[in-house]
User: Fold these one by one.
Assistant:
Number 1:
Amino acid sequence: MSFFSSNIGRVPNLLLGRTSLSTIQRTSYDLFRASGQLSTGLAIARPSDDAVRAAAVTELDARLERGEQVVRNLSLASSNLGILDSTIAELSNLAQEGQTLAVAQANVGPAADERSAQASVVEAMLDSVLRLSNQKSVSGYIFGGTNPGNSPVREVGGSYVFRNQVGGLTPDLGIGRSVQTTLGAGSVIGSLSSRVRGAQALDPALTEDTRVADLRGARGVGVALGEIEMIIDGTDVAQIDLTGADSVGDVLDRIEAAIRRIEIDENKTVLGPTDPVSIEDEKLRIDTAGASTVEFRDIAGGRTARDLGLERPTPSPFAGADPLGEDLRPRLTKRTPIDSLQALTAPLGEVVIENNGFSTTIDLSNAKSVSEIESAFESAGVYVEVEIDPDGETLSVVNRLSSSQNKSLSIRDADDGTQTASRLGLRSFQPATRIADFNFGRGVDVLEGNPDPSLNVDFDIVLGDGVQIPIDLSSADLTTVESVIDEINQQISDFLADPSSPTTTINVTATITDTNNGFTLQQTGSANPLTIAQRNNSPAAAQLGLLQGTYNTTTDEFEGIDPARVRVNNIFTHLIDLSDALRGDDVFGIQLASDQLRAATDLLTDTRAVVGGYARRVEDEMRQEEDRSVLDQQIRSELRDANFAEVATRYSQLQTQLEAGLRTAGLSSSLSLLDYL
């Protein structure tokens, strides 16, 4: 509080005036602040009022602002997850209805026309699934994955294509773990097909243009660039900074430059005369002159020399007889040039793709890189994608189309003689194809274990003259296409060599041809067609694609169908299979569809449980965020807001003080020398 000194009357008038004015001004300023606090309700109007409290209030304001955004995000996520949960519940009900219908129609009672009529019911279910698949929420399509602005599923000629990518939206919810509010590829609706696995390691060569980021490195963990230590002839030590080197050529240039500097400084020859720092196979090569040696080591905490194969597992220098480092194993990437793929010894040609009932020929003869192969496949309009396997060596093809079995994906060589699909490892039916992948992952069932060997026979190869060659396959034979072919040929050979077998002049050989995806039986010595006959109700011939095959009279070859086709495994395909089986009066197919729908129901239930868990976490976090917000607002109020009663009392006191100051100043200024005589 401002006051006047008791000896104020004994000073000059100028000092008295200034002192009085200063006191009145301070009181007026305090009165102004109190008035502002009363009108705004804030004790701190600007940081200069109280720097410490103002800093705390600023931090609390920022926290509250972030909290408000998080609450909005949580509210949005809760709404999305609620719609997602209800949609999955409807899908689960449809799958259960389809399964119930399949179980009822698989019984002996229903007639063929009744089953055909029920197919229309299943088609109505497909329409409902399509509608639910394109369900929208406030964030867009709930099955839109990371791109919810585009409708995820579209009908294409009786099939259904899922167009979005793997993953989903993960908004900032202030939660330690991410929560997806949309589902994408790989979900119950957007499942992708099992791959046409690449069976051929393409073996990209190491070149100077190979990027360091594309190397698996000598230890298989990539290459971490940094500084390395170089020792020449055991005495001259230098450090080489490889940080920022983009390509293998950059690494070679820096190593050679460092060695050349030592050659100049020490006036000696270390490197050989011709291209001394280079690449051989998939390793770095350093040629030294005479008895010179070059050794590399990692500095403390580094790993660059080991990753580049310069520091060997058993430490030893590069010398004349030992110039090579460790294998750097470059990865296959989109940038990899076709001419660097060592597995391709001839130019690429054409590939034939069959999908959704259409056949398309893709010309890869002009492809210069792996990315151009990907683009050629994806722009062909057959709803497939080429991906690089995580092993960094092979390519795979993924099908995005949910279709009937006879419209599923098949890839084969064209008739141009280049065997491009096989050489790229992308042919769906090839010697290395696993039998376990046949029939969309169901494999092949054979008869075995019966004491009577004749009861284990799966099918007969009926030659043109009527001679029947029995084929008895076992589980041990069902490894790959090649193993089945070998076993069939062995049994044919044993039968024809057996003196007790019927006499025939016809020979037959199981093989794979370039232009037919399926087992091919080549017959010689007969103009009559070769056929396949099922034995003992074994499903093996049908599951191997032989029972549905046809005889080509031009080539005298029996051509089976492709049992290794690939398609999406989701609720669309299951309902399509059920509809086809009902229209075809196929009881076994109806039973299979029933099993698939049961599995789909279980998957939908599991997915709904995951979504429910997400929703619970969002609700808990929203509750906690609201509690945090209330606490922060309380603390901010204590720091920032004015105490109205205290400020009002102080305001009254300041008014009294100001009035007293003015009166005192007036009295003091009226005094003169005569008042003291």
Note: The radius of gyration is 41 Å.
Number 2:
Amino acid sequence: MSWQISPLANGLGQWRSAWDDLNNRLYGGHSFSDSRFVEALLRYFGKGSELLCVHRTGAKIDGLLIVYPRRAGVWSQFVPDQAQSAPALLESTDLLKDLFAALPGRAWSIELLCQDPLFAPPDLLQEVSTSRPLPHALTMNVEVKGSFDEYWKKRSKNLVKNMRRYEHRVNDEFGTAELRILTIPGEMHDAIARYGELETSGWKGQSGTAVNIENTQGQFYADILGSFAETGQATVVEYWLNEKLAASRLLVSTRDLTIILKTAYDESQAQFAPGRLLLKDYLERAFAEKKVSTVEFYTDATPDQLAWATGQRHISHVMLFRSAHEARMHDAYRAIKKLVSGIRSKARESDLKHSPGPVLEFQRHEKMSQLPSSCEALFHGGEQESFDLSADWFKLLEATVFPESSIRIYVLQRDGKVRGVLPLLSKRTMMWLRQAKSLSNFYSSLYRVLLSPDVTSDELAGYLRMILRDAPVDMLQFDAMDPAHPTFELLESAIRQAGLRPYRFFDFGNWHLPVHGRSFQTYFQGLASQVRHTIRRHEKKLFALERGRLKIVTENDGLEEAIAAWHKIYGRSWKAAEPFPKFVPELIRMCAARGWLRMGLAYYDGEPIASQIWIVSHGRAAIYKLAYDEKFAHLSAGTILTAHLLRHVLDVDKVKEVDYLIGDDDYKKDWMSHRRERWGIVAYNSRTIRGIIGMTNEISRRSIRTAWCHLNHILATFKGKAKNSCNIHGGGHAGP
């Protein structure tokens, strides 16, 4: 196992074939890692200092990476702006450990830029002692699954209404529009020239960043599209109104994935939204042709763009360090830089207090139904990530869990435009602290503040100050959040800037399974042999003499019967009665109405004996609730039902992830391969007596826990069993 380092001279040269072989093996020939794309990047945007790093294990090439020296000791992956993502051609992140020593000089950090979690080694984006993933952009895609009508029916009412209005405007003004699809190599040069004219006529032309057939960017795109068109992998889609080009999109494709590289439209015709109309017509065509399974946008998506999406995810930069010590030094540097930046921000805030600037304001609502329609895009964006960030989920909590509670839903606005939605619950704690907490409870697996992507911590802090003046509190608490999501640190920083003292706390572990395109059969063969044998043995027992049967309910047909069966099974299970009896039935009905429901039922001699409620939305299957009749525990119907539903979501729904949601139960490890954590933030208002009491309680508890952990570590070391698994910040917080 070794790395070979070679200088590059404007191309991959002898390594071109190996590069494409590894790209095909790892990522199905992803366009951004195609040698034609990479070599064009090197030709037009290379600095001349790039090095090709080649890793071999035996005779096999299993790692290829292009890097350049960014500054002393820091090597950065070669990723010009024209590549919105740059899949690292690595079979394993472990290969990178030896790269530090192989690079010239003393390398202490390697930066991997624009990493897409769908096209990266599985553990690359997980933070460990020697790596720091940094979210960069929120990209989006559209799965070409089912018919276009089915896809369009699931779009927000606001989007559908707006598109209908634009179509009417075009019909009234021009009669008809023409969509032209260009794929022939000889057409690409002129298509890029026309595209450049569109960009040059708009704001990009004024700022000097527009594509032009005469400049480097224009030549790059003409080169790329021409070479990809030779193999039928390039398309230019043009939208014409009265023989005048109104919008254009540049696309490249693999056998499964189409990537939208660039988009431009005639800004003088913005009232007709030609770029959006082009997108709708193109997607309708893509659904009809079914040539690819996904259309990928690779953009930093706005709420308006997310309304089109069926999926979204974060593209991240990853900083790798030679050792944990150097990673900690970098963390300290960032902390100091952040502190200095905060001081400067406060100074600027003081200077701008009486200066004209953006107007921040909020609306407070007590019911979801009162929210303006302009909030739909934010909820839709949240829904792409998880079902419990959807508007329907919060409506469900409002109706079945918190009907008599003080719900406060804050709509955050800047200059009259919606910038965020903050669903909160106002309550008193056991110590009579006035608490505002996330609108969530033990039914919620994920929560976050719903924000436009460009909201800063300064802006969010401004909203929080206004909210605290509107409803004075002693304590803020946000539960079940993803610490890797950009809004986590953004919220924490904003709370601090608003004058409260935030503390993180561990909430629960979350086991999940990235599918990576596997069929159920492939997945099943990868399970532990004991699990496979158990399933097969109990299947024989359950289905012997045709006494057992399984059923999956997905729609309204047979729904009430399924709900009745759930109640019957749950009542005979080991579980305590539901504290909110209306919640689960209404959840089932909501999921059925949205097309999300996958409710499994196991019967034995006609009697329902086990049930599981799964929620499938936007490429993700969530295992939400399960129960079985203890009298039939010997049949292991729950285990068989899990396997049956897994087969359905992998082979029929084609999900990208299966999520076991809340908790570290041992049985989840049998089915899932990865673990992540959900954390919360609790903060205290030092301007109130009760807030100071709560903060004192929090600090005392954490100090005691830290001392106890250190004592246990010393005792374990003394006994020769040194192992410190203590999480000082975990285990909840001091609940006042």
Note: The longest helix spans residues 689-718.
Number 3:
Amino acid sequence: MGMEVQISGVNQVKTGMGVAMDQELLSVARLWIRQALTSVLQGDTTCYNQLIQEISNIEPGDPVQEANLVMTLRALSQAVSSINEHHHGSLLSCVLGLSIWNYSLYVADALMEFIINLATSNGGFVDRCLDMLVRNFLPPSCGLPLHMDSLTKKLILGGRGVDQLFLKKEAHLARKNEILDHVHSAIQKIAELVPTAALRLQPIILRRMPHRIIQKDWNALYMENMLRVESSAVGEIIGSRILMAVVDRLIEIDVEIRWEHILNEDSSKVYIFDMEMEDDDENEEDPGKPGSEANVQLTKSSAGKQSLGEVADKMDMLMELTLNHLKLCAEEGRLPQVYDTLMHSFQSTIMNTHKSKFTQFLIFYLCSLAPATCGANFASMLCDIFTNKSRAANTRMTAAAYLASYLARAKYLPLFAVSASLKRLVEWCLQYSPQQNNEKKAINPALHGVFYSACQAVMYVLCFRLKSLMDDPKQKLLIEDLPLKKILEHKLSPLKVCLPSVVEEFLRQVKAVHLFDVSEFTSSNNMLKTEESKAFGGVERLDMFFPFDPYLLRQSDRFVRPYYTFWSMVSIPVDDDEFEDHMLEEEEDPERCTYSEDLMFENTRNHNSRDCYHESSDNEDIEDFECAMNKMSITPKRTTFGMPPKLLSSTGFRPDMPARVTDMPARLYPTAI
């Protein structure tokens, strides 16, 4: 009976999928399906098996067969009250195993109607329905078993369809918007009708999250879905945890890009390095862990190695996606909530990650969207962390490094926020009195790392901000009232321990603006680069970490650049004596590129043309790199060729970077890792 009903129905719909289904025929089909479902309880599975076989044999793309599937799904939607998870598991696996990426929108409509009705008819089906929807965040052509439909798995197990599967990628991605609209609409509808659905959705999303080494397109598409959930009504319940998971994923990829890989001796190569896969064994043992399917992805390339360009390009794409999401959140008036989430993520993940290079710029950009509130609050929070004695010393030193780099680089930050943070640091330094210090014994810098990190933070910020603060009458009074000289005279001798390039530039600027007499410090300038400075912290010296050093990702840079202060943009006071010395050097060696020459050039340049990376030429990029990366940077020096200003797509590097980038001397030089 079932087959006759299906064929009769096809005659009415095969001429066009948009023709309304005959209600009488649908009623007959519903009665037949109900009979097939109830007969199973009595031990008769003939009709039930026929129904499963009919659905399983549907050929995607065949209009006649898809018309049959539409009628079957709509009839099933009206018979969900007869479905029992224990007795009808095979049917559920068959229907929930379908992928809407493979079928027309008419099938998608009917399938989503069934999913919604099933989930709302019985709470026991909610998890399976949500899992099916999340599986459809990615198309089967991604090659990940966790996101394949039952038909694709059957073809692959039969030794067919692997090549065809990957060929469908473009076609699948071309339908991305219409497919995901259906998926997310169904999720929202279920969440509206089932109060607990949102909370049950979150672990499913995290469990099906692809591994970090999976291709950038699939990582980006899945993250796009996560951010879409975050910004939806469901996001009001689980949005913060979803956004934090996004940050965690960015951190995982961020740490794969290391300076020693970037600074390869031969820039013309394709840079290959071994990805760290310590957690792969754990993933195999724990199928519920995010990315557990990585090792069985269908791909011809090695899952254990990726080029640096591929990893950088992936990071760039994901950062651009997330930064754009933050922009949309601000436009929707959700900035305060998102700020609170990112602050929690910053303290729990970002700040504790050793020298992340890019992820922290989410905070940097977010604060630029509300400088007077979010921007100032972030600086205040960093001060709170630093001055909190209950925090670990390493955490406090990291907070000082973040604070210094943030105050120096955030172009948008109000001067009052800069001066207020400096005041708190200076007051703390002045009150620091190490009781364990014996004046007769040599200083052990390792015992006072928190103090030295604060001193260095103050000097570092003033290297960038001193002139602008002194040019503002109100801020000038505040800076002049700071007991900076007393700190320099502290018995722990911060000038002997802090980064020499920062100390030297700080003293030079203080002298230029006549803030206080620095002759007693500059006359004994051999204190710079002392054994104490070299020994402090071993390989983890204070000069190793300025978190907001220039951003090196090309596409996502457009979000950061307008709000970022490059060292070349800083208006720096020049002492008259130094200017005369520079002019003498010019007469003796006009070809020499000195710091003062660079300073004079940068102060007369129109910086507006460099605010947008995409409008700048390669030469301007090189100039940005010379000025920004060769001074006050954690980025290591190159010894054989210049490090590129941006990590480029596909290759990651620009092999044509001229040698003059590294030849240019700088008073504030980069440090070495």
Note: The first helix runs from residue 2 to 13.
Number 4:
Amino acid sequence: MYRALIGTSFTAIALILSSPGAAQQPAAPAQDSDTPDQTRLDEQRTSPRVPLPELPEIEDEWKDLFAEDAAEDDVALDAQDAPVDLRYEFELGPISRLKSADAFKSLSALYAERGKVVPSLAELQRRARTDSELLARLLRAEGYYDPEIVIEVDPTARDGLLLVTATVDTGPRYALGDIQITVDNEADRALVEQKLALEEKQPLVADDINGAFDRLRLGLGESGFPFADVENPDIVVDHDTRTASYALNVKLGDNSRFGQIQVDGDPLFSAKHLGRLARFKPGDVYDTREIEDLRRALIATGLVSTASITPRRGEAQADGTVPVDLIVTLTPAPQRTLAGQLGYSTTDGFRIEASWQHRNLVRPQGQVTFRGVLGTEEQRLSADLRRSNWKQRDRTLAARVEASVEDRDAYYARTLGLGAFIERETNLIWQKAWTYRFGAELQASEERDRSLKIAPGFAPLRTFIIAAAPVQIAYDGTDDLLDPKRGFRLGGWASPEASFQDGFFGYTRAQIDGSAYLPMMDDNLIFAGRARIGTIFGATRARIAPSRRFYSGGGGSVRGYGYQDVGPQDDEGDPLGGRSLMEFSLEARYRFGNIGVVPFIDAGQIDTRPYPRFRDLQFGAGIGVRYYTNFGPVRIDVATPLNRQQGDSRVAVYVSIGQAF
């Protein structure tokens, strides 16, 4: 049992709320029976309109039996006049060391209203009684069934505040006693006990007991018994032994196996393609997790708005198992998208982009995108095909045909290219640890290297025909795709290339990227770092097509500089491009609520040699703002170059979705 005590800190006063007019009165003098006064007295005693006199043998006021939460006898209130402006401070005392302290704080009336005006000491008593009952319930959930709870009030106001203190003696903790499990098939008892995972003498904690029951129901569905009948357990608490018995009745039913996948209604996908998306085969042990995985895979295609998967039991087989067919009903989502963008940059000028996309033009999951770009420095037309889950789940076949014209500070290029790739990519629903990409590219271009001038202000056009076989692999050990807080990422790619320009020659381009994230202050502060190193070996810089060289600068590399503005330049300030690349970034991401502030510093270098050297680094620094949404942070960075070159702007602004790295 528990008790709540309201009194002074000097002495514990148990005050019985008594009637002030309950004192006994002396007896009236005797009168003759026939006197008028006696007659009037008799009428008063028998008249229903006259209130009953106070009974001398009853000293307490009558309690209202219908009042909500009538005060218990052991809850007392100090009998003193309440101050005009009654406020109090509340201290939990030893309660703060209990696991239930946080839950108590969130629900406590005393804790929530501390420091505020209290109408009366009676209201303070009501809050104490309510909080005592609340704390008792919370302690029972932790296995303490015999706590003694004391709430004391120090009436001596300090700085205008009374002091209310709550202390508790939890008493002994109850434990789980006898566990009785009844199953319809004794051969499966071990499975039930394994999934339930309860032991005698373990603390009688409500979350653990309820969690074990939920774990059993889920575990049976994951082990071939999706139709098991698990009744609610019968739990009996014995206060004499301070234990609780646990009785459970389980009817497992038939052992189920996956059957066939069937499509109901107008088929968006064939049953064969649904089989590719499923991570199970007919005959595998039925697992409810695989059903949810298939449903999420269907939604992830972008072609399905709702997916319903209904199990249907079949006939029992000779081995005693029962096949369960899956009836899949899909509601198509809109399959076409028309999009456009309009932008302006002080470094790149105007840029207009438009695209049309059909996500299932080549069935199944054959996404076709036509895209056009019209800008000051770039014009581009392209057609892309992406067949997701091609031949197997999580594998994508991608192909592209593109024609482009680029007029950059470093070069001018007219290019026609095509390529085909096979890749395994990550996404927001399933962030994969390992991804890869490999394929082939063929490119024909006419390019003008502005650094190779044969006359003032003039560089000749050269024709390049390039065949490449790029290979890429990456590992992602972070906790979030767009906003990582811990872990690291490491990736690299290599592209052996054969080029024809005044004869055939070959070279290899390669790059390694890595980033790491360190959380602090309960994940409100994240230190993030990034490094990138690249090299091109096998040919001189002059022979390599300008569009295939390394460049640095911009929102994805060294902020504060424009695109291609980091690295060596010719006498007219045009970027040379290089055969090696080196970049570093450091950020401190501090978040409060949905807003974040990110100071950062970047460094980078381009070298005409094949291997980077740790010198002539160019630095950019600035500060960013993040607005955190459900799909990721919106990023706004403002940066300035710390060692500007001729033509560099003093300030650069970058806007995008997701962190910089």
Note: The longest strand covers residues 504-520.
